[in-house]
Amino acid sequence: MKIREIVKDDYPTVDAEQSVLAAGQTMLAKNYTGVVVLKNGIPSGVITERSLLRNLLPLDRKPSEVRCEEIMVPLLKVRSDLSVSEAAQIMVTNERTRLFVYEKGKLLGWVLLTDIVPYLVGRELTSLLKTHVTPTHERVMCPKCKSDFLRMATFDEGRSVRWECPTCGYTE
Which pTM does this prediction carry? Predict the structure, then answer.
């Protein structure tokens, strides 16, 4: 799957000249963990909760007195034709939680780590299920009657779905 397929083009923005307080208020109002900083209408950086902590606190100044461009972090730009796996690797390598997806020099939007994880987890689970081998002899004593072993009773595409005790009928 390509990163362009999961990019979100709805992201909050602030102007580079606005205060960090305004950026924080925008993040809170829109329930986002970051805002894109625009210089002359062009995306130039990002402020995240993390960059607020790392870049604002050392300044020891009021958020209302610090301009966004003073603490913004450069955009981590990627091409729209990257695979989701490649994008995840770039995030890990650069210790970032969001990427800015570009196509032909134009920002399409951003992709957050939380957008990528479901695709990676889904792929790993699919791979695991394809290689799963169903045991032929499962030796689990019936927890109810304790006089027989549970037996596989139902299959769904080769996977055990239900176990049943032949003596008392207990199922799980």
Answer: 0.69
